[in-house]
Amino acid sequence: MTPISAEQTATIERAIARVEAAIGVQIVAAIVPRSDSYPEVPWRAFALGASLAGLVALFVDVARPDWLTAQGLLIQTLAILAGGAVAGLAATRIAPFARLFLGAQRASDEARQCAESLFLARELFATPRRDAVLVMVSEFEHRVVIVPDVYCKGKVTSAEWESVVAKMTPLLRASRVADAFTAGLDAVQALLAGKGFTPSAEARNVLPDALLREERR
Questions:
Q1: Residue 68, by phi and psi: left (phi above 0), alpha (psi -120 to 50) or beta?
Q2: Mean pLDDT of 182-199
Q3: CA 33 to CA 213: how far, in whole Å?
Q4: What count of other Cβ atoms lies within 10 Å of the Cβ of residue 125?
Q5: If one looks up domain 6-36+103-213 in CATH, what number appears?
Q6: What is the spatial distance between Cα 18 and Cα 13, in angstroms, rounded to a whole number?
Q7: Lowest CB count within 10 Å: 19, 66, 162, 176, which one?
């Protein structure tokens, strides 16, 4: 997970409190390292690495047919397996490389599922007015998911929530996680204020303003 300093965390939490005070809904900001373990990614990388190593071995065979001995074939086989193993290992350690083997739709689906699961697990539906809004960042996938409770549904469209996501995603891809949250919270405040959301006597701050940090999945 990208380190977020204590000062950056405090800035995000102050922004949460400011937005809640301005629009009267409960904002929850959360960050997860990744939304799924994606066991298929290392195997896809292994297949690519082995294929490339096999292609190199083929070119060598064509260029130097005199190397086609039993010992040469053994070395080629080991080299092909080693190429796959190196690529597979790299996919478990190097996030940008691993993302090459993860489809965009799969990443989006898993991030959405993770956010909805987090919303339920943390019982964010338990606010008196059902007015919680979860803003979750999934770092590995470079995805932002916003899950609003029923109070906001019908008042804010999916496209309008996506406009908030669009402000956060470029900053997240640049590894500016704290800036992404700040920009997103500012956008949420502007969006809901424009919809006429204001504090009311019914609104109570029942959810902590602390930034949620989920463990690696």
A1: beta
A2: 94
A3: 9
A4: 11
A5: 3.10.310.50
A6: 9
A7: 66
The three-class DSSP label of residue 169 is helix
**For 83-118, what is each residue's pLDDT tens digit?**
999 999 999 999 999 999 999 999 999 999 999 999
> Residue 12 — pLDDT band, cuts 50, 70, 90?
very high
CB neighbours of residue 124 within 10 Å: 22
Residues facing residue 143 across a β-bridge: 138
The vertex-94 CA angle with 92 and 33, nearest 5°, equals 80
pLDDT of residue 216: 56
pLDDT digits (tens, 9 = 90+) for 43-67: 999 999 999 998 888 787 677 776 6
Residue type, 115: A
Q: CATH 3.10.310.50 occupies which residues in the chain? A: 6-36+103-213
User: Between the CA atoms of 196, 208, 150 and 12, what dihedral angle is there, to the nearest 10 degrees?
Assistant: 60
How many CA atoms are closer than 13 Å to the CA of 8, on its beta-carbon side?
Answer: 12
- Mutual angle of helices 158-173 and 177-194, in 10-degree steps: 160
Tally Cβ neighbours within 10 Å of residue 129. 16
Task: Collapse the DSSP code of 196 into the 3-class scheme (helix H, G, I; strand E, B; otherwise coil) and give the result.
Answer: coil
Computed over every residue of the chain, the mean pLDDT equals 90
Say what the alpha-carbon torsion angle 193, 145, 186, 132 is, to the nearest 10 degrees.
50
Give residue 98's pLDDT. Answer: 96
Give Cα 80 to chain centroid, integer Å: 33
